[in-house]
Amino acid sequence: MSHTVITTTTTTTRSSGDGFLNMGYTRTIPGLLKIGQMVALLVAFLCVRCARGWPSWAAFQYFEVVSLWFLIALLIFFLMHLFRLQGRMPCINWPLTEFFHYSVGTVLILIASIIAAVKSGGVSALVVASVFGFIATFLMAVSLWTTYSVTCGVHQTGAAV
Fold first, then answer.
1. Residue 80's closest CA among 14, 42, 18, 31?
2. Angstrom distance (rounded) from CA 147 to CA 52
């Protein structure tokens, strides 16, 4: 009687992505989009904040509030991904939350950028702020599309139709 012996060897390696920080996220497309959005919103906010002689006080106060609010929200989402906090809070649907954030943010930052462009009055810092607002709007629209395809896109199942 012959016997066959099968041995399986399992090795476990720990990569740098398994630690406390998920530094690999900063090199992914969603991570790079978030970094780009944060930089664009920070530059836009600082341009408005440092500008002298606002032609329309209310318009640029709105621009400041919207850009700072979404900058802080993006920083929170970025830190959540960086420290892997979504896994510790499974009661929240994070892709849907980010989709909602991007949908509202895209619309509000677009409105703020249009108002800033119209009301800039030739002040160069305010024109630059509106340009960076449009850049942030574009990056948020790309993120909205990518989170839509993750959250609401067609999901493949093994079931036959």
1. 31
2. 38
